[in-house]
């Protein structure tokens, strides 16, 4: 955990001006020449931000540098608290219930939809940013808007791609990574036969287990329809589960118990040659002090998820967004901070420092140099563009959040894949579990 305080910036021009003004501080026009009107930072403003711990070190280093830059410009004290990412949402729920805690939460998925009435309207800065930077990708409106109101400000997504050893893929008889489901299954079978298997999490892994949603959607299955009716028990979902049953024997043993860290460890340990993950595996190998991992990094490549019979990408990624509670004493300062962090001068260096670990939600940032600096980064550029929301194709809220947190889709795929239940029985159980949350 780290803090930036006014002691760090007492000699700055802005802080001195604020101290002598005796009133609200208008954010310098040189900083945000096109900002929304009437965004005045309150006198004596200070902020507390709760965000998830970094997956790659460059993320937090540049985040803190950008925060310090904001403090130097405005004199606003900003305290940054970091927690393991699964712990952020529960802490946010506590804050919402008791009416005190961090001013700003940087969270994942649809948490703000659970207490939208307790959040500051961020429409002014969201509309400004969208207008300036080419618009938001469609999934952002699903996650971050409630009706016409922006209750969250999209940060991006910790995108996942297929991570693989190129030399092992070629040894298995493939020159390029498959782009369809049949080819992907054949590759996994060939890797298994060569003794260099694949492995993807089938335990209760929120992040790396999201490939189970991709699998269901790729064949045309989904949990609910546009009106939140449970429709998971369909021929399309059944086909996805039958596919999973063929795929599972190609995996390394133990994936039924894998949580989010397991596939990273197995890949870097040389136990598997293919998995789904963020760019953090490559980052860890590339920046390691171990020469063996540096050598492995040269052989690590990435590909977007294969496209199924539906004929379009059906990916799910760790979508992240920021939101501000109404109990915040300095809402304009909070908005100014979020705006500052999303402007090009801060966002692109931050994204580059994390070598694209978080994919942008604003279309203009697809031109960030990070996507060209290393060809291996490029597949992550389109992950937000390609993704659906986890409650697809229904609305987000209590039901979708409960279904995600109850690992219904993950468990259904794991049961059918492993043979602990037949695909039909796994499907029927998932349907019953969903009906508890999506009541007519």
Automatic annotation (TrEMBL):
<dbReference type="InterPro" id="IPR006311">
    <property type="entry name" value="TAT_signal"/>
</dbReference>
<keyword id="KW-0813">Transport</keyword>
<dbReference type="Pfam" id="PF13416">
    <property type="entry name" value="SBP_bac_8"/>
</dbReference>
<protein>
    <submittedName>
        <fullName>ABC transporter substrate-binding protein</fullName>
    </submittedName>
</protein>
<dbReference type="InterPro" id="IPR050490">
    <property type="entry name" value="Bact_solute-bd_prot1"/>
</dbReference>
<dbReference type="InterPro" id="IPR006059">
    <property type="entry name" value="SBP"/>
</dbReference>
<comment type="similarity">
    <text>Belongs to the bacterial solute-binding protein 1 family.</text>
</comment>
<keyword id="KW-0732">Signal</keyword>
<dbReference type="InterPro" id="IPR019546">
    <property type="entry name" value="TAT_signal_bac_arc"/>
</dbReference>
């Amino acid at each position: 955990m780290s803090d930036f305080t006014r002691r760090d910036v007492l000699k700055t021009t802005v802080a001195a001006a604020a101290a002598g003004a005796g009133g609200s501080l208008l954010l310098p026009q040189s900083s945000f020449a096109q900002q929304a009107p009437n965004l005045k930072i309150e006198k004596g403003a200070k902020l507390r931000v709760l965000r998830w711990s970094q997956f790659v070190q460059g993320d937090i280093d540049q985040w803190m540098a950008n925060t310090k830059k904001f403090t130097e410009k405005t004199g606003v004290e900003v305290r940054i608290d970091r927690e393991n990412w699964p712990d952020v949402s529960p802490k946010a729920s506590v804050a919402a219930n008791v009416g005190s805690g961090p001013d700003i939460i940087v969270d994942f998925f649809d948490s703000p939809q659970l207490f939208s009435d307790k959040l500051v309207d961020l429409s002014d800065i969201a509309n400004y940013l969208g207008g300036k930077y080419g618009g938001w990708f469609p999934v952002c409106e699903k996650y971050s808007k409630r009706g016409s109101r922006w209750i969250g400000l999209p940060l991006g997504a910790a995108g996942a791609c297929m991570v693989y050893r190129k030399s092992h893929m070629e040894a298995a008889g493939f020159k390029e990574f498959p782009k369809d489901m049949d080819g992907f299954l054949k590759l996994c079978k060939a890797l298994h036969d060569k003794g260099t298997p694949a492995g993807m999490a089938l335990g209760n892994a929120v992040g790396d287990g999201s490939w189970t949603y991709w699998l269901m959607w790729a064949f045309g299955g989904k949990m609910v329809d546009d009106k939140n009716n449970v429709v998971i028990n369909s021929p399309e979902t059944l086909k996805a589960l039958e596919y999973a049953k063929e795929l599972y024997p190609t995996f390394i043993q133990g994936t039924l118990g894998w949580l989010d860290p397991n596939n990273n460890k197995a890949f870097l340990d040389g136990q598997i040659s293919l998995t789904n993950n963020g760019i953090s595996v490559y980052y860890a190998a590339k920046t390691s002090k171990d020469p063996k991992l540096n050598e492995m990094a040269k052989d690590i490549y990435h590909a977007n998820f294969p496209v199924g019979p539906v004929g379009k990408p059906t990916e799910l990624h760790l979508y992240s967004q920021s939101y501000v509670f109404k109990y915040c004493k300095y809402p304009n300062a909070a908005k100014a901070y979020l705006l500052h962090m999303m402007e090009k001068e801060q966002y692109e260096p931050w994204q580059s420092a994390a070598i694209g670990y978080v994919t942008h939600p604003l279309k203009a940032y697809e031109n960030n140099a990070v996507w060209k600096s290393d060809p291996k980064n490029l597949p992550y550029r389109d992950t937000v563009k390609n993704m659906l929301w986890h409650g697809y194709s229904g609305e987000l809220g209590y039901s979708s959040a409960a279904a995600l947190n109850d690992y219904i889709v993950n468990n259904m795929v794991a049961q059918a894949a492993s043979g602990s239940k037949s695909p039909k029985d796994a499907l029927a159980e998932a349907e019953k579990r969903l009906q508890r949350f999506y009541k007519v």
